[in-house]
Specification:
The protein has 251 residues and is α/β, with parallel strands linked by helices. It is built from 8 helices and 9 strands. Helix 1 links the parallel strand 1 and strand 2. The termini are far apart.
Length: 251
């Protein structure tokens, strides 16, 4: 099998890459800084420098990866950008980065993958959203709104590509214990409920793709908590989520 992972040089993306490599598959990963992968000791791993915000860049990396291979079996987009703007202010550049990476980048990855898979009439595309995107309320953060957009965009592609044998899986994880999450929280994850490790997340995601699930929310306790919160009036949900954001920033 041939698997390509955008945003695959760190975190969940790189963990998925190692998972598929352990099965003997060919894996291509890309990111803005390939140097984040310290030493490539995997014979079947290829690393590319790309920016998901640039469709030509991601398309070229895919073409180079598949040049000597027979088709693309799985494409996973793990690329994403985060900044907290509910309990604090963010810069224009941070807002632009989230919009570009989390929305334009998602569309670019779908387009690059589907253009290859349409000739095969098979293949699986997966995107990493966020459990925060499950909730809809007026004062949600920009990050939450972009991840809600990811879920909606993936749903549209699922509808469009299903008749042509291409499956689309949306992953909406809760908190996953990655280096990035620790860096964002000064290595203190005590306020991150239902935390799961990378290995557990990798197994859940890979199984969801294999089984061609449409939407997977994990862990289970987080899924039920989100469903419970979604039943609340928007005004009350706004208050609860704002206080949660302030609490997490220790304000």
């Amino acid at each position: 099998m041939n698997i390509f992972i955008a945003g695959g040089t760190t975190g969940i993306g790189y963990s998925l890459a190692k998972h598929y490599l352990s099965k003997g598959y060919w894996v291509g990963i890309c990111g803005r800084n390939p140097a984040k992968v310290s030493g490539n000791n995997f014979e079947k791993l290829q690393i590319f420098q790309t920016d998901v915000c640039d469709l030509s860049s991601i398309s070229l990396a895919l073409q180079q990866f598949l040049a000597d291979k027979n088709g693309l079996n799985i494409f996973i987009n793990c690329a994403g950008s985060y900044a907290e703007d509910v309990a604090g202010n963010i810069s224009y550049e941070e807002a632009e980065e989230m919009l570009q990476t989390n929305i334009l980048g998602i569309v670019n990855c779908f387009e690059a993958a589907r253009k290859i898979m349409k000739y095969q009439k098979n293949g699986s595309i997966a995107v990493i959203a966020s459990v925060s995107g499950i909730l809809e309320y007026e004062n949600s953060s920009l990050y939450t709104k972009t991840k809600r957009s990811v879920i909606q965009i993936a749903d549209a592609y699922h509808r469009a590509l299903r008749p042509f044998g291409i499956s689309v899986t949306t992953i909406a994880p809760g908190y996953v214990d990655t280096e990035k999450l620790r860096a964002l929280n000064q290595n203190d994850l005590s306020k991150k409920p239902f935390l799961v490790n990378e290995e557990t997340a990798t197994i859940i995601i890979s199984e969801a793709i294999e089984n061609k699930r449409k939407l997977v929310i994990f862990p289970t306790k987080m899924r039920w908590m989100m469903k419970s919160l979604s039943l609340l009036p928007s005004s009350l949900l706004n208050i609860i989520m704002f206080r949660k954001a302030k609490w997490m920033k220790n304000d």
